[in-house]
Structures are given as structure tokens and as C-alpha cells.
Design goal:
single chain, alpha+beta, Glutaredoxin, globular
């Protein structure tokens, strides 16, 4: 019992010392308040064209309204399904280690260069964004491969089979054909909660 407690504390210290909150490494990258009354979980792949549609069209609408008001939280979880996309997910975590703003810039660049996601290209993207040398080292060593794997396993437990899969309360939205239903569903969920 005592050894387990010490190991748990050490693991938590190591996770936090990476610059990324342990909660994000276990549950996905958080946008918005963790205390928001409505939570959305999005499983995505950075090489998925439908996920690019979510990033380019749905995410800005969510940010301009519910996320900025603190009424919606959004968790992005890795679910690499396209061959070779694990490295881009690891690289995104390396960007998150630098900061949230850098992560956002990096995933925007990933989706803008959706077909250019080899290791050297990922490092070039980071370099073009002015990331420190530690980013390239993080990408090379696949520092966050276990985090990506853990989040993909959460997706499997949530019966995710394609991307994007969006969980909103008890509702599920799969793929591009259902993407634009998400905004309506968010508005319905928000209508059930008191405004600040």
C-alpha cells in the first residue's frame, strides 16, 4: 500500500513536470472550464479530412460562444486511425508541452498540411512556428506515445470506430455527415443549463 502510494505520487510529479497537467494526459486536452455544465469529448485524427472539417468549421463556432462563456468544456482525445498518424499525435503533445497557444497553432498547421506528416515535416512545422529545439527532440523520441495510446484505448472503451466521434452528454455524433448537427445539439444542451 505504502509503495503504491509513493509510486502514484512520483508518477503524478513526473506528469506535471512535463509541463502538461496530468489530467490532460489522462483525459485529453481541455478547452474551456473543467467546471462547465456541458462537456463535449471529441476523438480525432490529425490526418482525417473529416476532423479537419470539425477543426475548421465547428470549433470556431464553439469557441466564439459557449467555450468563451464558460458553459461548455471541450476535450480533444487522440484516436489515430490512419496509418502513420501516431507520430503527428505525439508531435501535437510535444507542442502542447510548450503551451496551449502553441498546441492550437500546431494543430492548425497540421490540418493545413494534412498530407505532410512525416517526422521531418512535423519538425519543420514546429520550426516554422518558432518552437524551441526541445520540440524536435520530443518528436524524435516519441515522448508522448504512451499518452496517445492511453487516449486511443479510452476511445475503444467508448466504442469509437471512426473519426471524428463526438460525445455530448448521452449523444454521439460520428463522421462528417453528422458534424453540423453538433452545433444544434450543443445549443439544446446549453438551453438546459443556467447562464452565468
Amino acid at each position: 500500500m505504502y509503495k503504491t502510494l509513493i509510486l502514484g505520487v512520483l508518477a503524478s510529479v513526473l506528469l506535471v513536470s512535463c509541463g502538461i497537467p496530468a489530467d490532460e494526459q489522462e483525459q485529453g486536452i481541455l478547452f474551456g472550464s473543467p467546471k462547465a455544465p456541458v462537456e463535449m469529448i471529441v476523438y480525432l485524427d490529425y490526418q482525417c479530412p473529416e476532423c479537419k472539417q470539425f477543426h475548421d468549421n465547428i470549433l470556431p463556432a464553439l469557441e466564439s460562444a459557449a467555450l468563451s462563456e464558460g458553459r461548455l468544456s471541450l476535450r480533444l482525445r487522440d484516436f489515430p486511425v490512419i496509418a502513420g498518424s501516431n507520430i503527428s499525435h505525439n508531435a501535437a503533445w510535444c507542442a502542447r508541452e510548450i503551451g496551449t497557444k502553441e498546441y492550437r497553432a500546431f494543430i492548425g498547421a497540421l490540418y493545413a498540411n494534412i498530407d505532410a506528416q512525416r517526422i521531418f515535416q512535423l519538425k519543420e512545422i514546429g520550426n516554422s512556428l518558432g518552437f524551441p529545439k526541445s520540440f524536435a527532440e520530443c518528436v524524435d523520441t516519441e515522448k508522448y506515445a504512451n499518452v496517445v495510446s492511453t487516449l486511443k484505448n479510452k476511445g475503444r472503451a467508448d466504442n469509437v470506430v471512426r473519426t471524428p466521434t463526438i460525445l455530448l452528454g448521452k449523444r454521439r455524433f460520428n463522421g462528417a455527415s453528422e458534424l453540423f448537427q453538433v452545433l444544434e445539439a450543443v445549443n439544446e444542451e446549453l438551453a438546459k443549463t443556467p447562464q452565468n
